[in-house]
Amino acid sequence: MLSDIEIAQQTALRPITDVAHELGILDDELELYGRYKAKLNQSLFKRVKDNPNGKLVLVTAINPTPAGEGKTTVTTGLGEAMAKIGKNAVIALREPSLGPVFGIKGGAAGGGYAQVLPMEDINLHFTGDMHAITSANNLLCAMLDNHIQQGNVLGIDPRRVVFKRCLDMNDRQLRFIVSGMGGKVNGVPREDSFQITVASEVMAILCLATDIKDLKARLGKILVAYKYDDTPVYAKDIKADGAMTALLKDAIMPNLVQTIEGTPAIMHGGPFANIAHGCNSVRATKLALKLADYCITEAGFGSDLGAEKFLDIKCRYAGLTPNAIVIVATCRALKYNGGVPKTETGNPNLEALKKGIGNLGVHIDNMRKYGVPVVVAINKFLTDTEEELDYIREYCQEKGADFATAEMFAKGGEGGRELAAKVAEACERENHFHFMYEDNLSVKEKVRKVATEIYRADDVVFTAQAEKSLKKIVELGGDSMPVCIAKTQYSLSDNPSLLGVPKGFTVTVRDVRLSNGAGFVVVYTGDIMTMPGLPKVPSAEKIDVSEDGVISGLF
User: Fold this and answer.
1) Whether the predicted model's global pTM rises above the 0.90 cut
2) Whole-number percent of the chain with pLDDT over 90
3) Whole-angstrom Cα distance, residue 344 to residue 538?
4) Closest CA to 373 of 329, 403, 413
5) Nearest CA-CA partner of 95 in 105, 109, 114, 79
6) Could you give the residue ranges of the DSSP H alpha helices within 384-482?
7) Cβ contact 436:454 at 8 Å
8) CA–CA separation, 95 vs 129, rounded Å?
9) What are phi and psi of 507, to 5 degrees?
């Protein structure tokens, strides 16, 4: 059997100009990055702004195994399948981060015959968006520390710098550091830390900004530190917003690529869902809605993370209304939720599947709470038995949920015809979309609402540190903002070992932080880290390149 990268490398790609022309995109609306990648510039946004919107389909999932469950594969394959049934669809995806590419999951551009191409470019440097975000983030940090070094006119307290440097790599060594050592010429010594680029507020801002003007305004609002007199310091106060915007002027343009079957895909932005808001950019999604009858987009990890944030943050700010929600489920993830170790999830085990099936039920019920039609995509793996697949189908029938077996990994768009038809039908149903909480609730009430309704927690407790941070955030006006909860992806709870449908647990909030430019309050629960580490055997060990430049090991 061919690997993902071998399938990708054997595919004859269409010139990206041909893909663009089929969407009605003009040559002067493209900024080409070679033959197979292009950025979509502002002139396209202006020309299509009055076009009617297509249908918005959100793809999410149950709680995954550490290896991931093929949500991007299903999203990509669903776009391909829509074309097979005569529908015009554009896929809107996040860009992969180098962290998971070199860490646990490997490549993140779909799999099998439902991939986005050119997969090597997409998984590595792509069009440089991640680098631009990293540079803009770290320019702000450099200017902040330089201000302190060069006389500190604003009276910034070095002990109360709250904005972190970032790097698009899993590197636990940088979680907590001391910087500015080596004497006066090397800066003011202080404790510091890095986070991964996809957790940066700059990433969130890029993904929520509507245009360059909005991007600059949001960047200027980033809370970076506090003064000795306890007043806040924002990025605009140290005059960093203009230069940061300059670094991001190309990165704000969405990227156009294609699937193995030539279906158009717009990839832009890539915030993690467990430590950030988990959705691609508002600009990419809105543009896809103007260019096609269907926009197929995804949100990271399970519906308790990415989908909740897509619905309560992205849709709130962008004025979006999803027409259908697809929940990806797999036999192996349900067996994992039934207590089977990751290494054994490929073995037949109907009893473990029965123990873990309740996890799917919770995700179905949770998405229904938003008033949007739901379809379950049973993503089929080679190791699945018909007995196991039939059990999931019967469970979906008992729940009254539409479902279809998804075989796009092995068959491309042909393997998703049934799912595409079910999704198209769901998009025509009555829709009563609403948010999980309203703006006028306090941060505590919003967190409690999500924790009790979505995670099924008994209660929420705030540590003394969280209470202290929250008091300051309320003073700065953060109480009116939505919440972005950082939580483990492996459990509905804040404890990764509580699999399936945990009961009788309390969510502990250990700290909160104001992402003032992004417009939300980040709520840290459990032991979630904003700078992941590499596993014992990272995927990077398998990645190589031949003498003639052919990459191997990216899945």
Assistant:
1) yes
2) 90
3) 19
4) 403
5) 109
6) 386-399, 408-411, 417-427, 443-453, 464-475
7) yes
8) 9
9) -85, 130
